[in-house]
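Exercise 7. Given the encoded structure of a 96-residue chain, write a plausible sequence.
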């Protein structure tokens, strides 16, 4: 079985999450609801789904057994870090 690196999973799901957030952000701007802050709270749901998917991918691919809190902390933070970096660059380029 090939070794699965935490970094590669974090980068992959970080990019997926950033693309989902950018798509949601653009959709909200296109339909004219981008100014309503309550709709932006859905960003948290998108982030949590990205973290959970990354966690499940690593759990299925890894032979190592980690505690739940350790897995969430390590891979969740890496995934969130990668996607936030991409999303912040996107927002900065648009100057919203």
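Solution.
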């Amino acid at each position: 079985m090939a070794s699965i690196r935490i970094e590669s999973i974090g980068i992959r799901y970080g990019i997926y999450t950033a693309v989902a957030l950018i798509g949601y952000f653009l959709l909200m701007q296109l339909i004219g609801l981008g100014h309503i802050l309550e709709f932006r709270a859905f960003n948290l749901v998108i982030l949590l789904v990205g973290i959970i998917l990354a966690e499940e991918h690593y759990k299925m691919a890894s032979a190592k057994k980690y505690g739940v809190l350790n897995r969430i902390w390590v891979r969740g933070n890496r995934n969130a870090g990668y996607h936030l970096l991409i999303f912040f660059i996107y927002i900065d380029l648009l100057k919203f």
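Remark. The CA atoms of residues 5 and 58 lie 9 Å apart. Students should compare their own answers with the one above.
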